[in-house]
Amino acid sequence: MQTNQLILKELSLSDRPISGEQLAQKFSVSRTAIWKAIKNLKQSGYQIESKPHIGYKYHDNGRLNEFAIRRYLSAAENQLLTFEIHDQITSTNARAKEISIGSAASLPLIIIGDQQTAGYGRYGRAFSSPNTGIYMSFLLDNPITTLNPGLLTTATATAVTRAIEKKLHLTPSIKWVNDILVAKKKVVGILTEGIADIESRYIKQIVVGIGINYLTDVTSMPAELQQRAGSLRCFAKEYAVSRNEFIATVLHEFFLLYPNYENGAFLNDYRAHSAVLHKQVSITQGQKQFTGRVEAINHRGEIVLSDGTTLASGEVTRIRLT
């Protein structure tokens, strides 16, 4: 770990200012080297307060910082998780799949990008990813030989919804299967992908991608997105919750559910937040179209329509109240 990162870690994990002399002694470098490292960190966007005769103090201004994220996690979570953070990346899901090919990574691996240049959602659609959002992918070992992506996606949506409620004090809704809405506008998208072993054809690893319009100014988005996209910006600012803190909360909620997500114990919570349950909907599945009243979301996270049609995947394109 380079001197800059060592100093950032030390400051990020400390509640109190640390003097340049203390840092120099700890890392066996000169005071001048400490000063230069602090200067470089500030130029990189980290907020570090310098007070004469007192020392340096880190403030979490939302600049992505693995050590700040880890500060909000438990000891067990810190031991479990490995991070890879990028200032810019094509796609966190694509990066996760690239790493999976090598099969040498320590898992679970959390890949986070400050900005994506080729982010994508379901059906390969482009996902707008300015550097004010949260874009992360979890590369996970699959504990079983199969995968119910619908159930894992519903578990992920539940985890993110719980994080929003706990930190931002509002109640979002979930549009089956993978969109989280605030005021009927999309603020979170989720994409779950399986990675198969070529020889066994089993799903050996899983990628869970989450894109959140966190501090995003919707007016800066492409015009075609502004009508249906929302943002958590005003709530994040009102409650002073940085991206690092919110990321840690999502991780905490997700890894509470993931070990046993297949039992569907979270589904009552998912149903309580559903934007489609007991409503008339139109659903597109490939070239097929379905219309009907959503009678239930079953134990596998599938939609059950009033005519008995059960759908494990698809896109809700229209919701009517009656």
TrEMBL record:
Record InterPro entries: aa-tRNA-synth_II/BPL/LPL, Bifunct_BirA, Biotin_CoA_COase_ligase, BPL_LPL_catalytic, HTH_11, WH-like_DNA-bd_sf, WH_DNA-bd_sf
GO biological process per UniProt: protein lipoylation; regulation of DNA-templated transcription
EC number: 6.3.4.15
BPL/LPL catalytic domain residues: 74-262
Cellular component aspect of the GO annotation: cytoplasm
Reaction(s) this enzyme catalyzes, per UniProt: biotin + L-lysyl-[protein] + ATP = N(6)-biotinyl-L-lysyl-[protein] + AMP + diphosphate + H(+)
PANTHER family: BIOTIN PROTEIN LIGASE (PTHR12835), BIOTIN--PROTEIN LIGASE (PTHR12835:SF5)
Recorded family membership: Belongs to the biotin--protein ligase family.
Name of the protein this chain belongs to: Bifunctional ligase/repressor BirA
Phylogenetic placement of the source organism: Bacteria, Bacillati, Bacillota, Bacilli, Lactobacillales
Gene: birA
